[in-house]
Write a structure and sequence with these properties.
Number of helices: 8
Order of helices and strands: HHHHHHHH
Structural class: mainly alpha
Strand content: under 5%
Shape: elongated
Number of strands: 0
Distance between the termini: 26 Å
Helix content: 55-70%
């Protein structure tokens, strides 16, 4: 069985996404609201706030709290990992693939990474 350090080195070869800005967080919120056919107003009400709440966040009049983002993810039926890792590239197939990958042994992860590198 190959060591963890080899798998870690292979995983580092996968290009990491750029850091997420506050504007990107707001964009992702809009993306998931559109995906769920929810307006700012409807999302505000669903979160239990007044109708202008999400609009104020989007206009940067009010700062988004972590607790609000967690509630937002819950009503969008996504995890915080979905929000930050997949963002506007979110789809069920990618999510399922990541879940399956995380359950593999390190040796099998290395095989998959090697195969993916060949498919580039």
């Amino acid at each position: 069985m190959k060591s963890k350090s080899i798998v870690s080195a292979k995983l580092k070869q996968i290009k990491e996404p750029p850091p997420i800005t506050y504007d990107e967080v707001l964009y992702r919120m809009s993306y998931f609201m559109d995906l769920n056919n929810l307006s700012n107003r409807a999302t505000s009400f669903t979160l239990g706030y007044n109708e202008q709440f999400i609009k104020r966040i989007m206009n940067k009049t009010v700062k988004l709290k972590v607790s609000t983002l967690l509630e937002f993810c819950e009503i969008m039926n996504i995890t915080i990992t979905d929000f930050f890792y997949l963002g506007n590239k979110y789809n069920e197939n990618d999510k399922n693939l990541l879940n399956m990958f995380s359950r593999l042994s390190n040796e099998n992860k290395e095989i998959i990474i090697s195969l993916m590198n060949k498919l580039k």
